[in-house]
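User: Fold this; C-alpha cells only.

Assistant: Input:
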Amino acid sequence: MQLKLYQVDAFSNKLFSGNPAAVCIIDKWLDEELMQNIALENNLSETAFVVPKGNDFEIRWFTPSVEVDLCGHATLAAGHVIFNYTDFSGNEIHFGTKNSGLLKVKKEGNYLTLDFPVD
C-alpha cells in the first residue's frame, strides 16, 4: 500500500518552525489500527487523516498513542494541503468529524482561519 503523506508546519511560513502535523488524504477510511500505526511511525504530535466526501471532507486525528477528538493545528495543516495540493477550488473547506461537529477552514489571501466549535 502506498499513501501520500505531507508534513506541514502550522502557524509558520518558515521551515522547521511552527507546529508540525502530518496529513494523509485517503479515498476511504483505513482500519483504525493501521491509522494508529502510521501516526506512531510519523512520531509527530498529530497525524490528520482526511477523506473527501463530495465537496466536503471528513477528518480524524491520531497522536502516536491514541485517536483524539479535535486538533486545531492538524486541521489547519489539512486545509493547507487541500488548498495547495489538490484540485479543490473553493475558499472554505468543511470538515465533518466524529465527535467535534463541523469545522470550517477559510482561505483569505495567504492565511487560513479555523472556526472552532463552541459546544
